[in-house]
Amino acid sequence: MPEFIGQLPKNEPAWNAISSVQSFQRYTQGIHFDCDHNSRLTLTVLSPNLIRVRFSPNGELTPRRSWAVNLPNAEWNIVDFNIQETNELITVETEKIKVCVQRHPCRIMCFDKSGNPFAHDTDLGIGWRKNQIINWKEITIEERFYGFGERSGLLNQRGKCLTNWTTDSLDYTMLTDEMYQAIPFFMSLRPNVGYGLFFNTTFWSQFDVGADQLNTLQLKTQDSQLDYYIIYGPEPATILETYTQLTGRMPLPPRWALGYHQCRWSYDSETEVRELVKQLRNRRIPCDVVHLDIDYMQGFRVFTWNKQRFPNPKKLIEDLKQQGIKVVTIIDPGVKFDPEADYQVCDEGLKNDYFIRRVDGQVFHGYVWPDRAVFPDFMRGKVREWWGNLQHYLTDVGVAGIWNDMNEPALNDRPFGDVGSSKITFPMDAPAGDEEDKTTWKETHNLYGMNMARACYEGLEKLRSQRSFVLTRSGFAGVQCYSAVWTGDNHSKWEYLEMSLPMLCNLGLSGVAFVGADIGGFTGDASPELFARWMQMGMLYPLMRGHSMIQTKRHEPWEFGQEVEDICRKYIELRYQLLPYFYTLFWQAADKGEPILRPLLYHYPNDSQTYELYDQVLIGSDLMAAPIYRPGVEKRMVYLPEGTWYDWWSRELLQGSQHILIDAPLAKMPLFIRAGAIIPLVSVMQYTEELPIDELRLLVAPGTGKFTLYEDDGNTFAYRDGMSSTTQYRVDLEGNQVVVEVGERKGKWIPIERKVIVEVIGFGEQEFIDDGSQRRLVYQ
Ligand code: GLC
Question: Where is the Glycoside hydrolase family 31 TIM barrel domain positioned along the sequence (predicted)?
Fold first, then answer.
């Protein structure tokens, strides 16, 4: 880590502080406040619940960067707001909130319409000195904090100091701060009040969430100005919808990417891959995707194939396709520095000046898998385009997705494994980006991984006429627009199983819905019991991928004995049965920015029982799981929120607003359905496209509720031209009867002829041929 990151030289001058407002002017979208010593504060009203706050010590705001993920102010509709002025305050009021700016000294205070305060500046307000700016805010005793991108530990992040600086956080633990992803966004919750804050800085930044002082939040950045968005909810769903309006939403992935992925470092030869797929199919373990880790390459040269181990990748991939398997290959950003050999990627990059140079003009080198490597500057449009096109080396032979790794970036100053070799990053003063907004890596370090994923996504979109799968280890706010994310190198230990749920939930609460952790754990050897429990939890992960490290015990489901293999099969099958439900949740994420895996607080934000509940999770709004994540545990406590619930396995009715003790022998992961739920299910398949879906089952839990099913071809981009459809189902209780209403199918996409079976728990089944028309089914 370079010296000036995170710490300041000892002789640094004292803090300057924001002082009084001297004058203010209204403009179309907000207000400018001129403060003492030429400093300037600007409030921009982007929507009734979204206000951008900017402060510049010298009064100048830097122009918008080409890589800024948020929409420029100019693209937001003009919103109505009122200004009121007293001797003490200038108040901006929208339909949803009030933001008051106190004149002497200048402080910002926010209130909802009931007068509940939030995000108030403390007595210190805003302060700055060279290379650092801080805003101090009050936090109330009841407030809890979530999101912050990828975070180890449990759900609520209050009490921690959280740095936003992408890092290869290999061997991370509960205590690790800097992670692979840096997403400077959080949401704060207390009963009836909820807001989000997006800290719009790509420089090193940090949230101190009551770590230093119990009731103070500090926003710190090494940017020269302060820039953040206040997003009022109060519901988490509203906060996320608005946050993803700013930073973007995920595109719909191909449906096959929702199936089971099997990965290992490495299935390193054609023979091994064929054998793996044979085992999967013979043992009837459903699977859609096999990942190839670094050993498929020739000497770790990206965009090459090892000719001995994979003599004919095209034929292999074609044969796997016949068996319903897609291939995803890993790509790292480090390009082997190999000017003597005939290695086109290196040659082209050098010739066209695509690689990062030091400030003195020398091409920068670091050491990764291929030893000495050079690194593309993904901040430049031309470089991204070049890199995007390079994916053709893989797509030409039929690769359907790319896994972007080591892109924090992860590199060393000497060859990996050499004594004394240590982690480094790009020199902070090295130039980055295109001419128009040329800067240094101090500003763009956090964006490296995301821009690699972007180059890959944009390349694949051009090269393949269908949806592709993109996975990345590193990213920044907005990474969801290009890629799914996995939580890097976890361990085959119970603690990591436990931590995975809250980690994935916090990612989901940061706008990144398509997320997963390595099932079974990456480093180390899983025990049979751990593996079985992990597969149960893993079927809930939006990205369901088993992965393990080189030299560990094999981690395929059949490696742990018959009992565990059967358990794995049962839960992978359940995932495949639930595919129409999951696919609709992915659409909700693409449409509104909703998470797929949701902590209970997402749907029960006024129930403070849910605030620390990290070991239960909702999949969508209607299914709730309470997995087991400790050895030897065969019973656990489950919190049922308000309402009525049904046990998934026994169909027993359970009253909400209570804790229950539930049995969970090894073969069982406790799972519940909310009363009023309508869950679409299909029959088990060995891969998502194995059979035409000529039968759809709706499992209905008596109560009041609705569900909108989303469907399309699952593979092409035709949905963008309206080739999709939605069907709304409703359930209600009328006296002793349960009534299920099937709405008319809307949209242009027409499923194949199918039977729909509607099963109401405790009331039996009815069925009909789905012609897209409305109908009403009565159960008594
Ligand atoms: C990194 C990745 C891991 C991968 C390995 C080899 O450690 O996080 O998933 O298997 O590199 O490519």
Answer: 251-585
Tens-digit pLDDT profile for residues 670-688: 999 999 999 999 999 999 9
Question: For residues 693 and 383, what is the distance between their CA atoms, to the nearest angstrom?
Answer: 43
Determine the Cα–Cα distance for residues 277 and 325; give it in Å rounded to an integer. Answer: 8
What is the rounded distance in angstroms from the CA atom of residue 719 to the CA atom of residue 743? 21
Q: Is the CB of 168 under 6 A from ligand 1?
A: no
Q: Which residue is listed with tokens 């290959």?
A: 329
State which amino acid sits at residue 178.
Answer: E
The closest residue, in CA terms, to atom 10 on ligand 1 is: 265
- The SS3 assignment for 348 reads helix
586 lines ligand 1 (CB under 6 A): no
- What separation in angstroms does the CA of 485 have from each of 62, 114, 545, 716? 31, 39, 11, 22
Q: Out of 179, 291, 330, give the residue to mutate to test ligand 1, the one with the largest number of ligand atoms within 8 Å of its CB.
A: 330
- In testing the pocket of ligand 1, which one of 179, 404, 405, 518 has its CB within 8 Å of the most ligand atoms? 405
Q: How far apart are CA 596 and CA 584, in angstroms?
A: 9
How far is the centre of ligand 1, averaged over its atoms, from the C-alpha of 579 (Å)?
28
Of 373, 358, 457, which Cα lies nearest the Cα of 410?
A: 373
Nearest Cα to Cα of residue 255 among 16, 575, 11, 493: 575
- Point out the ligand 1 atom lying closest to the alpha carbon of residue 266: 10
Q: Give the model confidence (pLDDT) of 360-384 as tens digits.
A: 999 999 999 999 999 999 999 999 9
Count of all residues that appear for the chain in the document: 780
Q: Which positions are annotated as active-site residues?
A: 405, 408, 489
Among candidate residues 532, 585, 540, 606, the one with its CA nearest the CA of residue 707: 585
Closest atom of ligand 1 relative to the 489 alpha carbon: 8
